[in-house]
Write a structure and sequence with these properties.
By secondary structure, this protein is an alpha+beta fold. The protein contains 4 helices and 7 strands, in the order E-H-H-E-E-E-H-E-H-E-E. Helices cover about 25% and strands about 30% of the residues.
């Protein structure tokens, strides 16, 4: 990865490039349990909906998007305003070069400004690694300070195999009796 990588907020018009990154995860891996690659229009709507409240960031190198990360509601009810689910996808050839860490640290910086405290990651998991899933995502999140909090057995079926999921979480601050109000990303 070049040092000329920049990180910026995603735009709905990035959907085509982001979908090129995401599609191989759908068609070739169990990292996502989505079966069908969404349309560019659907992906654009997902970006727009996320950006109403949460950051959706992209890493750009030589005018090409090479990875993205975003946060979404852990649960839509108001009591969960201080908790989010985090997600990250990188171009296959960009993994293992520090880009994921850089994207997640930028995402955390934005989420802190929104007064988010709990970061949660839902991760596909397998006891028997295969061509569709290894447990690199668990190791990545652990390296960034996430701890495993839940394990659900055989709850996702893809490529003729039952896969588990684990939830990992990271606390970014203290849980005060009167927490600061959640700030939508549009107000940062």
């Amino acid at each position: 990865m070049s040092t000329t990588v920049s990180i910026r907020m995603a735009e709905a018009t990035d959907a085509g490039e982001l979908l090129k990154i995401y599609a191989p995860y759908v068609t070739n891996t169990a990292i996502t349990f989505e079966y069908d690659v969404p349309s560019v229009e659907e992906f654009s709507k997902r970006i727009q909906n996320t950006l109403k409240r949460y950051p959706y960031i992209v890493a750009v190198e030589k005018e090409q998007i090479i990875g993205y990360a975003y946060a979404s509601a852990f649960n839509p009810r108001a009591a969960y305003d201080w908790a989010v689910e985090t997600t990250i996808y990188l171009k296959q050839e960009c993994r293992g070069k520090g880009l994921g860490k850089r994207l997640y640290l930028k995402l955390e910086e934005l989420l802190k400004r929104q007064n988010i405290i709990n970061l949660n990651a839902c991760i596909a998991y397998t006891f028997n690694e295969d061509t569709h899933l290894n447990n690199a995502s668990e190791a990545f999140h652990q390296h960034l300070g996430y701890t495993k909090t839940a394990h659900f057995t055989k709850c996702g079926y893809k490529f003729g195999t039952w896969y588990d999921i684990i939830w990992m979480e990271k606390m970014m601050g203290e849980h005060l009796d009167n927490p600061k109000a959640f700030i939508p990303v549009t107000q940062l």
